[in-house]
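Appendix B, record 7
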Amino acid sequence: METKVNNGGEFWKGFFVGSILGGLAGLFFAPKSGKELRAELAQRGCEIGEKAGEFSSEAQAKVGAILDDARRRAEGLKKEADRQIMEARQKAGEALKMAEEKASEIRKLARQTIEDAKEEAKRLKAAVDAGVEAAKREFSKEGEKPKTTA
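Structure tokens (predicted):
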């Protein structure tokens, strides 16, 4: 079996040839003379060109307005983002400063508590030593007394 690959090339050839032949047939069979037809086509071509120019100008103006608006909005958004970033940095700085102050207070309290504990330990040791000395004296006095039995 033979397979034909149709890539559409023949269709387009036929389309263009048909378009040219149809255009020529329209010129030959037109009710107006060639000069009148060409003048009318030229006039319509100018009108279409003018309308295309107007459309292009309007489109450029609209695009320019849209771009200006987009720039203004982008600038506004950038300014707002910058403001919020600065605000967040400021708040973070304040929070960090407060945390450092609290940490410093806690370190001071811890040092004071340690010093107080050391002082209390010294007093307690002195009291224990005094108690031990008193007990030693008391036991040594008892050793000197004669024992009585009851």
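Remarks on this record: Helices lie at 9-28, 34-144. The mean pLDDT is 84.
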